[in-house]
Amino acid sequence: MLADTATIYIEAGNGGNGLVSFHREKYVAAGGPDGGDGGNGGSVILEVDDKVSTLADFRYKKQYKAQNGGDGRAARCSGKNGEDLVVTVPVGTLVKDANTDKVIADLNKLGQRIVIAKGGSGGWGNSHFATPTRQIPRFAKSGTDGEKREIKLELKLLADVGLVGFPNVGKSTLLSVVSDARPKIANYHFTTLEPNLGVVDLGAGNSFVIADIPGIIEGASEGIGLGHEFLKHVERTRLLIHVVDASGIEGRNPIEDFDKINEEIEKYNPKLAEKKQIVAANKKDIAFDEDVYNAFCKEMKERGYEVFEISAATKLNVDSLMKYVSGMLDKIPMPVLVDEDDQEEKIIKFEAEPDFTIRRENEFYVVEGEWVKRLVGSTNFSDSESLQYFQRSLKKKGVIKALEEKGITEGCPVKIYDIEFDYVK
Question: Where in 322-405 does DSSP place strands (E)?
């Protein structure tokens, strides 16, 4: 079956740590700080590539991580930046946040790139913290962590025209006679498992892509017959050809069949029901009941549909149908599921997490958060200047004020990861 959905975990590289280092040279008793900065972590980039046509590869590899940045070095040498990780996806891939199902990007152009997870920044070496009054800083900054996200990929076929209708009405046969597609054709009443695409070439550069959209049977909007997996492929098409077996040879009512399919489409997404539809009354050559066939065509015309009386098997009126479709496509713009700017590379900004949180755990006030964790990691608690910097940073960031708003009093214990101390106002 076509792999058209995948959920993967992506992680950008962490920034390298800044270095605490002092210049060492013969005959120089007290060299100044020369710790270099850490390198930036690599980002994870999604890129549209025409060599990729499915999401099948994501079945076997679920996690993608970019390279971390290198740590700073002595003599003010910066660490090496981590390499970006480029993950290729097919044209027509919709990117969603796996937790919220919110659409992040619609990748519908070759070469389009988005930075889906940005690498962390490198930390400053101790050379940045030297001042006239603090000439021997024994601390540096840790690098920031790269962004981590779980995302969902959905491949929505880039077809101009979609063939919809019950199984066994002749959609696959019609696709095979108007294009170079070679779908499996048989007399069955269960749905094709895989969408089939073909290119209809009418000459003089006049061509379009047509797809047999499987899975749409009664109950498809509720997931019956793989409906949920394939109904979404209708979303990108500009025009629908509703193929109906109007011959009456199986004793079915073609008007009821037509209505049931449209009901399923509307239940799945009401906007899809607004798409332009052309009715192909198929199997005219073997019409078992002429009254049923004619009544169906009359009803569709009265409803305002353009009706073509065709036989996909004998190609009766098929050319006329395709020429009419081509003319209609010239008037219908390509739908865009997500508004995109013209940037070649776009950085996706996710909602930022809070810098810190405070909670009570027994007698402790526990302070947590990525920013606080980085601050602890970059503090030398045995050095008075580094400790003062730690305290000033907590106050400047609002941690002290937040603790007071939580009701902390003199002498109450505070825990910040591995560090414990008593609150002193």
Answer: 345-347, 357-361, 364-368
Q: Where are the beta strands (DSSP E) in 213-294?
A: 239-245, 277-282
Task: Check residue 313 and give left, alpha or beta (phi > 0: left; psi -120 to 50: alpha).
Answer: alpha
DSSP E strands in 325-409: the ranges are: 345-347, 357-361, 364-368
- Residue showing tokens 């909670």: 359
Contact 244, 259 (CB under 8 A): no
Instruction: Of 222, 281, 197, give the one whose Cα is nearest residue 247.
Output: 281
β-strands 364-368, 5-11: how paired? Answer: unpaired
CA dist 65 and 11 (Å) reads 5
- 294-343 confidence digits (pLDDT tens): 999 999 999 999 999 999 999 999 999 999 999 999 888 766 555 545 44
The tens digit of pLDDT for each residue in 157-190 reads 667 898 988 888 888 899 989 886 555 444 444 4
Give the whole-angstrom CA distance, residue 381 versus residue 392: 14
